[in-house]
Design brief:
This protein is α+β, with helices and mostly antiparallel strands. The protein has helices at residues 2-7, 23-26, 30-47, 52-64, 69-87, 89-98, 105-116, 119-131, 138-164, 260-290, and strands spanning 181-191, 197-205, 208-214, 220-227, 232-235, 241-244, 253-257. A hairpin with an 8-residue loop joins strand 6 and strand 7 (253-257). Helix 3 (30-47) packs antiparallel against helix 4 and helix 8 packs antiparallel against helix 9.
Length: 293
C-alpha cells in the first residue's frame, strides 16, 4: 500500500524535474522484500499453519537458500533512497499530508529493517509457549533454536551492511562484482611496507574484501579493497594470517583477530573465494577452447 501510495507521486503535475524517473531509486529493493513475502514467506505461513515442525523446517530452508538476503540488499540501498528523500524533504512532506499518511515515506523505507531485526524474538516467544505445552519435543526444540540463530546471523549481517554505508571516502553500490555480503570482524592490522599499525574492521563478500581503519571516534575510514581475482593469502606460523595483492607478497596486510575461530573462518572463506575464481577461469577457458575458429 505504501509503495502504491507514494509511487503515485511520480504522476503529480508539480513533480520537480530532478525527481522525475527516479521511482526505481526510491524503492530500489523494497519491492523485492514485498515480492518475497507475498509469493514465498506468506505462502509458507499459510501452508504450515498448525504444523510447527514443518513451519520451522521451511523457514530454515528459506534462510539457508539466502532468500532473506533481500533484506540485506535493502539495507545497502536504503541510504540512496533516504538521500533522495532528504533532497526533496519538503515536497515529500507536502505529499504525505495530501494523501493523509501520518508516518512519512522514511518510515516506509525503514519499516522492513525494523521488522526483520525482531523476527528472532517471535521465535524466542514461540519457544517459551511450546515449553509450557505438550508440543515441544527434542526435534522441534532444536529446529526452533536453529531458526533463532539463523535470524540473529541475518541481523548481524544487516547491522554490518549499515556500517558499510557509513565508511568515510567510500561509496558502496551493491553489484554482482561483490557477490553476497557474508560478515564483518575486527582485526589488528600491520602493513608490511609502511609498518603502519592500526585497529581495522574488515568486510567480507563472496568476491572481495573491504578493509577499513577504525578511527579514534569509532568511525571507519576506507583503506584497501581486495577482489577475488587478485587476492592472495598466507597463513602465519604463530598467529593470524596475511592477505596481499600479488604473488610477490608486496604491501601485504598482517591480520590478527581477537579469536582463533574468527581467523579460521576468514581463512576458509578467502580460500573458498580464490577457489571460486579458479573454477570460473577454468570454465571460461574451456568455453573459449570449445568455440569453433
Amino acid at each position: 500500500m505504501g509503495i502504491d501510495s507514494y509511487g503515485k507521486i511520480f504522476y503529480e503535475p508539480d513533480l520537480p524535474n530532478s525527481l522525475k524517473g527516479k521511482k526505481d531509486i526510491l524503492f530500489t529493493c523494497l519491492e523485492c522484500v514485498v515480492e518475497f513475502h507475498d509469493k514465498t514467506f506468506y505462502s509458507i505461513l499459510e501452508e504450515n499453519s498448525g504444523h510447527i515442525e514443518k513451519l520451522l523446517c521451511s523457514i530454515s530452508e528459506q534462510i539457508t537458500d539466502n532468500n532473506f538476503y533481500c533484506y540485506v540488499t535493502h539495507a545497502f540501498a536504503k541510504r540512496i533512497s533516504l538521500d533522495l528523500i532528504g533532497n526533496f524533504k519538503d515536497y515529500f512532506a507536502k505529499y504525505s499530508s495530501k494523501i493523509q499518511e501520518p508516518f512519512g515515506i522514511e518510515c516506509l523505507i525503514l519499516c522492513p529493517l525494523r521488522r526483520i531485526l525482531k523476527y528472532h524474538l517471535i521465535f524466542e516467544n514461540l519457544l517459551k509457549v511450546l515449553e509450557t505445552s505438550d508440543e515441544l519435543d527434542l526435534k522441534t526444540n532444536k529446529l526452533c533454536f536453529t531458526v533463532i540463530k539463523q535470524f540473529k546471523k541475518i541481523n548481524d549481517i544487516i547491522n554490518a551492511a549499515e556500517e558499510i554505508n557509513r565508511i568515510n571516502n567510500f561509496v558502496f553500490i551493491a553489484s554482482y562484482d561483490y557477490g553476497h555480503f557474508l560478515k564483518a570482524d575486527n582485526f589488528k592490522i600491520t602493513e608490511s611496507i609502511s609498518k603502519k599499525y592500526c585497529k581495522g574492521r574488515l568486510f567480507l563478500f563472496e568476491k572481495c574484501v573491504i578493509c577499513t581503519e577504525v578511527l579514534v571516534d569509532g568511525s571507519l575510514n576506507y583503506w584497501k579493497y581486495f577482489s577475488y581475482d587478485k587476492i592472495g593469502i598466507s597463513i602465519n606460523t604463530s598467529k593470524g594470517f596475511k592477505i596481499f595483492y600479488s604473488l610477490a607478497n608486496d604491501n601485504s596486510l598482517d591480520l590478527v583477530a581477537e579469536d582463533d575461530a574468527i581467523e579460521n573462518e576468514w581463512v576458509a572463506k578467502i580460500l573458498g573465494m580464490i577457489n571460486c575464481f579458479v573454477a570460473e577461469e577454468k570454465h571460461r577457458l574451456k568455453c573459449l577452447s570449445n568455440k569453433k575458429p
